[in-house]
């Protein structure tokens, strides 16, 4: 396990760490290989197991798989993201439900939790965005773990997405993830990341 300090409970294999992190890259174009519906179910079933505050689980996902559904997304996309989304077999709209607390009585046994969030819009909105974003990150890792390539993006008009694709749900759009199987290996080396000493403090 080169460069990895194993905790007492063990560590993923090098192959697993490569798949999730070290060799994982954001594709610029996807190949034609389809993504079966059952894979999307498996991706969500893994992602939903990640922790959220009080098990609030505000994250929601709309998987766009048909050409018609993806065409409805195009007007909301930044020009640079149109070709990438067009090549992807699936585009996931990562959302959060502002009324997530309505589900709390069956997700968390703590008495009064639903009413606590319902009475404080600022708290519930902050909680929904933070934890919904966290669940979107879990979705990326789950997709990679199941052999998919993932291209998250924020270049889109969230209001157009909500009006065109989410109006019947009341969900709020956070970011997009193009999913599929990369057509080619990335041509450029991975962009640098901040070192531990630059980005972390141990107190």
Automatic annotation (TrEMBL):
Gene3D superfamilies: NADH Oxidase. GO terms for molecular function: oxidoreductase activity. Keywords: Oxidoreductase. The keyword Protein biosynthesis does not apply. Belongs to the nitroreductase family. This is NADH dehydrogenase/NAD(P)H nitroreductase. It comes from Acidomonas methanolica NBRC 104435.
């Amino acid at each position: 396990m080169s460069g990895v300090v194993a905790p007492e409970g063990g560590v993923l294999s090098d192959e697993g760490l490569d798949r999730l992190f070290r060799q994982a890259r954001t594709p610029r174009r996807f190949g034609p290989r389809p993504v079966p519906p059952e894979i999307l179910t498996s991706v969500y079933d893994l992602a939903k197991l990640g922790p959220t505050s009080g098990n609030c689980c505000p994250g929601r996902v709309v998987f766009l798989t048909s050409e018609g559904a993806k065409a409805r997304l195009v007007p909301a996309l930044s020009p640079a993201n149109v070709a990438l989304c067009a090549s992807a077999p699936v585009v996931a709209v990562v959302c959060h439900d502002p009324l997530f607390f309505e589900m709390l009585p069956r997700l968390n046994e703590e008495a009064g939790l639903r009413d606590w969030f319902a009475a404080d819009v600022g708290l519930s909105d902050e909680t929904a965005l933070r934890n919904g974003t966290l669940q979107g990150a879990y979705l990326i890792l789950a997709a990679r773990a199941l052999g998919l390539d993932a291209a998250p993006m924020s270049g889109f008009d969230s209001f157009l997405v909500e009006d065109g694709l989410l109006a019947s749900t009341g969900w709020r759009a956070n970011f997009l993830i193009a999913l599929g199987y990369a057509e080619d290996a990335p041509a450029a080396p991975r962009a640098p990341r901040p070192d531990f000493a630059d980005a972390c403090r141990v107190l």
